[in-house]
Amino acid sequence: MSDPNQNPQTDVNQLGEFGLIDHLTQPFALTQPSSLRGVGDDAAVIDNQGFLTVLSTDMLVEEIHFDRIYHPLRYLGYKAVIVNVSDICAMNAIPKQITVSIALSNRYGVEDLDELYAGIALACEHYRIDLVGGDTTSSNRGLIISITAVGQGEPDRITYRSGAKPGDLLCVSGDLGAAYVGLQLLEREKQVFISTPNVQPDFEGQDYIIGRQLKPEARLDVVELFHKSNLKPTAMIDISDGLASEIFHICKQSGTGAFIEEAKVPINQQTELMAIKFGLDPITCALSGGEDYELLFTIDPADLEKARYLPDLFIIGEITPAADGIKLHTSGGNIYPLQAQGWKHF
Amino acid sequence: MSDPNQNPQTDVNQLGEFGLIDHLTQPFALTQPSSLRGVGDDAAVIDNQGFLTVLSTDMLVEEIHFDRIYHPLRYLGYKAVIVNVSDICAMNAIPKQITVSIALSNRYGVEDLDELYAGIALACEHYRIDLVGGDTTSSNRGLIISITAVGQGEPDRITYRSGAKPGDLLCVSGDLGAAYVGLQLLEREKQVFISTPNVQPDFEGQDYIIGRQLKPEARLDVVELFHKSNLKPTAMIDISDGLASEIFHICKQSGTGAFIEEAKVPINQQTELMAIKFGLDPITCALSGGEDYELLFTIDPADLEKARYLPDLFIIGEITPAADGIKLHTSGGNIYPLQAQGWKHF
Question: Best of A23, A57, A160, A293 to disrupt the B interface by mutation (most B CBs within 10 Å)?
Fold first, then answer.
């Protein structure tokens, strides 16, 4: 952990607005054949011949979505890209370009921005995405990052939230709740750090849950395997607000009900142990904790054979008729209505 | 003028995040054939068969780009869309879709957002654009609006900043400096209003310059006439930072010089009179004032005949070889190097 106000910084005014844009975007080369023109004109130009364009946008606000005390700027830049890439993946499409707009207060210097953009560059490289535009301006408080991602999808592959039907299997691509428990741990250690700044927290053995919070990944690998195995989910959404909330979105838009089996919801052991330490129910963390960025999708049972190449596939329940409602089958054998409690940013 | 803190407001928490999104976006129907799916999934889906996708993004930050005391939210919503539409027009493309992300402090209530979105809706209707996505979140200070616009362009019509060549005519689509002088007037009246809040300012006779600042338009009409008359500018940019700054962009990216004739730069009479009242040189306002959102473009002199249908076409100078530099020919017969002083947001 570190106090972000302690580093001497180069004033962004030294570069000027256009100088700053050049400085930040110069390391980003265009590598996607569809990126005809990137930063440096009034707009980016994208050649999408025959594909559908998929478009998603997210805004991250300091003090609301991230805390500089435990969120290094490089990780933050990476995560800001991932959040958007994950939305494109949830459409069963391939992310291709992003625009990055930032507003920053005078607390931020050129070195800070270099760190932020190093993280953005790392995510772009890892997910083979071109940075093609953006806006930089000042704010009177903190840092605001607004990213828009563009993806390409074949018309018959694009997957909406609305295609699930009774009998479909409800699946997730990985374990849940870790990012939420990781955040609780970071928040606790922040309080310790504030009272005794010389003591650095020891996260040994907690690297998994910390990593899930600070450096999440989007499941582009899963989308690519869907394409390779010619498996098209009937509905899909990414888990940014929490499993329960996302199930409600799919059921609402598909006009269905669903049940999930508590015992089938994948939870990492570190998540489970730390949740219990915090006096939290692990299944509640998995259902209502956000920011795991796994994919939640439904598949026709006839397609199950095609799913065998997926590295991580957890069948956690089933889609039911709308009249059956949305239910949780507990490990103890009880059936409860599921509560949709996602992240609240207001 | 009004004090934005005086209105009783409905708390946005009453609606919840998804309820708020539904409430704000429900009036927006999709009307563009290319908008396959809008708000309500992980991403919007756009069908761009055969066209190029053009993508632009801008962020407006309270206290930096707008002042609630004289910027009604309805106008602000309109202007936030225009700023982006203007960038798409500057590519010689047709705006089709936008995403709107907002972060807002708890000073803002549902009625405020309704006003903002009413302005956004008006701009969407006027420019035939679909709102297809966005993000809403909270901020600890003020309102931040980040809009991304998507346009369509035929591959052989897209116009970059980089295509100007010596001998091309340098043209603007309308008069300049009004938005800047309008801002000076609003700032002066704000000071009067702060000291004597009961006295409402009288803007009679100043409606043009006030309107240019508060409710600018993008020159989509000019772009449509380019297409109709089969005239393709060799280079184009929109005037958001000021004429001089934009000329520098075109010259830098085209590898040319340019000269402009002071006497040919169109300045509205209201702008001229108010500039003089403020002790400002009208030509300086036109050269360095921003936010006029007119188009600056270069055309091959052989195409001049095709330009006769344009409603507003002012030939203000010419593109020259790079070695000649970027010059201002004054009305008095002098030649000076042009100074690039655009808006500075840092």
Answer: A57
